[in-house]
């Protein structure tokens, strides 16, 4: 801004008071503000402030310095002094100060540190705090203004805009807050700029969202002409000005450590607000944590929920919130309508959207757990290009109705749960829920089918992670297909996902999807049977595989035999080979090693006829697996090495992990414990990286055996315990039985014979249910353990502990609870500090 005031002046001094008279004398003397300041020994800002009326009562000494510098005669001096005295008697409204918060700010240390640096160290002159309604922008704005006040010697000015509904009233609201007498003027913003001048001050504009365009214009002008001014704005939408720094206010930190719930910001806020209502929830922090997690740490939602503790228990509150956010209402009577309920807060933002934005906002509610740009385009009304989808998503993100998370080079978009519920209500109101759900399901059917080509090979880990990120959407799509009896979508989706369900350990859920989809397939008219045959064959293969993995061998065999017939009828050699491989697995676990070898050899021949190197590698791997379980370590090692080398070439992570596990097991049974550990640690690391749960469970199992053989029983218990937990959660009872037998061996080494008998009984009970014998390679060790246990216990004690184990549910055994009464009989038992899952 020019320092002589020529662009923003108020006239030539006639009738303009002391400031106008001073300006006239300065100009008559031919001086600029800088020249007068230098001659009088004052600052340029002081001269500008006096001329513009920001300072209305100059001291006597200042008057003398000015008169001397201007070389005024006595009449002019007297007149100037008289005007100064007149100004001193005029009371100017003071600058509006930020309001005093009525309660303590909970948490926000990280947020205050980051924003204080930006404003307090003058990194930026315009900082916008943004975020959805109810996230606590105003409260953080107040705290920040207080923290940086010392960095602005001319003060902090608070401009509340929530109640301003007319854009034309923005500039008058700012003028009133900075202490100006409101006059009719077409250049009010320029006059505000003149009033502020070179003052080092902070202007805080709170709640700008509904006036964002006008507020942006005002800020742009003030920042241009007031070089020492800084502006802090709170808004659900960005101002979109050059030089604007944006800080997205996050929700409060949620509890992660169950042992330190009270340290969570979200929990602390709930406790403080509930206590203020007369209810102390400190004895129910686990339920408080459940509530605040459901509310995703949103401060307004937490405060509204805490207010309900006057009539509800926290457990009841948590239960209500699982189904609806409708109870989040009843805020303070003095609060604005948008602060009295979460729906009111969202409705206020929704009212500011254009019609196109509202349509897209409603459509996006169909997603569960976030979405990508391509997915958004697939559900938009009337179809949309990726560019159109990007534009609309960007507008909603700028308005804080969706949030963006960037991870692994991919942007994903999310709605907070309460916002998604509001959007879903709007979608139902316009009657588009079914249409959007169908488009959503078809998109994810396509994704599932596309993933099949990538779940074997170099991209396996990347695609597994991608499907994991979309798991909530895949579940939603599957639920729609089953609910609406959409046969094609149900079969294609379930069939496309069975391999993912296997690799990531969703055995039971995948089985349910496949069985229900196949039931729908049974009801299709005859003319569609041939059309659906390929997807039905795939679904039967998947259902059989997942049943096998849960040791449901009869059900698995039935489904796999159906799939085998269907693939043969289709002339699908690759599908036939894969089914034979799965049937070989069933035979292997049932102890029929000859049948298993025949099936795997037949599978190998088919893969060889196709030139399928990956399929041939899998056949080698399974033949090696059968060989070492049967006790033929040399053949097993040869087969598994060939498989390992091929898997490295084709980039099959799952296959590589399995071949390493087999080679590690062969090494440990051959007494090569160092080699075994190296191989098994490699398989464990690879399985963990892939998220391949069965590989993790097997690796831990074999590493536990290695440590037991070394006599390191503490380490062995830890590894076997973790393996048992994984196998139990997966539903793999065949391997759970083997791990229980290994734990029994450790118990016996520790002279906990009674508990060893209990574990052996539990393993035997599992094997009886699934009708699968102890693998040949494990029989000698298992028999030796039993013999040692029987030798160290009276027959009656052994039978009692054994029977208790056989009667105990696997879940209870895996959780490490000793059988009732065992510790009371005076026999040395496996103490609570030594038992699985916390032994």
What topology does this entry show?
Elements: H1 17-28, H2 33-40, H3 44-52, H4 60-70, H5 74-88, H6 109-120, E1 126-130, H7 137-148, E2 156-160, H8 170-178, H9 188-196, E3 202-206, H10 212-225, E4 230-235, E5 244-248, H11 265-276, H12 285-294, H13 299-307, H14 314-323, H15 342-350, H16 355-363, H17 373-379, H18 386-398, E6 403-407, E7 410-414, H19 417-429, H20 433-452, H21 460-469, H22 471-483, H23 487-503, H24 507-522, H25 529-549, H26 553-570, H27 573-589, H28 593-610, H29 613-630, H30 633-650, H31 653-669, H32 673-690, H33 693-710, H34 713-730, H35 733-749, H36 753-770, H37 776-792, H38 795-807, H39 810-814
Parallel strand pairs: 1-4, 1-5, 2-3, 3-4
Antiparallel strand pairs: 6-7
Helix pairs in contact: 1-3, 1-5, 2-3, 4-5, 6-7, 8-9, 9-10, 11-12, 11-13, 12-14, 16-18, 16-19, 17-18, 20-22, 20-23, 22-23, 23-24, 23-25, 24-25, 25-26, 25-27, 26-27, 27-28, 27-29, 28-29, 29-30, 29-31, 30-31, 31-32, 31-33, 32-33, 33-34, 33-35, 34-35, 35-36, 35-37, 36-37, 36-38
